[in-house]
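Aim 2, interim progress: modelling of the zinc ion-bound target.
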Amino acid sequence: MAIALAMAMAMALAMAMPLAMAMAMALAMAIALPLAMAMAQAMAMAMAMAKKKTIAQMVNKAAELLQLLRRLEESDDSGYVSCVVCGVTKHYKDNMHGGHFISRARTATKLDERNIWPECARCNMPGGGHEAGWAAFMVNKYGIEGVEELHALSRTTRKYYRGEVEDLIGEFKERIKKEEERVVTNSQ
Ligand SMILES: [Zn+2]
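Predicted structure of the complex, ligand included:
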């Protein structure tokens, strides 16, 4: 009953409404609706941007950038780099990682450049038995004392501040850009 009444009212309204007015309304809807949707989208984006990342999330972002940077820095001008554990040489984008000597779970050495070297995906698998290869490489590079120092550092508590991590992210991006230019420029 209510539906029938509503339909009858709608039909009456439609017939009564002058054509020009109906067109004007349709036009207004066509303009207003996309505009309202665009505004809602813009607001949602602004809100997402305003929502600050936690410092831990920023440290993770910095760590990812540093892993890429270290792979690039060790690459030759054609982008080829060797795994420090097994010696396999591949393009830095081809299953090569920025591997950690001391697990990246240790916050204090997570962003320490001495701790990050190119490592192939196979050697970087958990439980891959790559410790001996890593130790040999690191001792050769930094000496026993240097490796012990890094281990000692990894056991300390490190608190990161927002400003310093922001600076690091900026620095790493800048250095990555330069390295990518070097590799790209020289491989053409
Ligand atoms: Zn390897």
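The pocket of zinc ion is lined by residues 83, 85-86, 88, 119-120, 122-123 (CB under 6 Å). The two ends are 77 Å apart (CA to CA).
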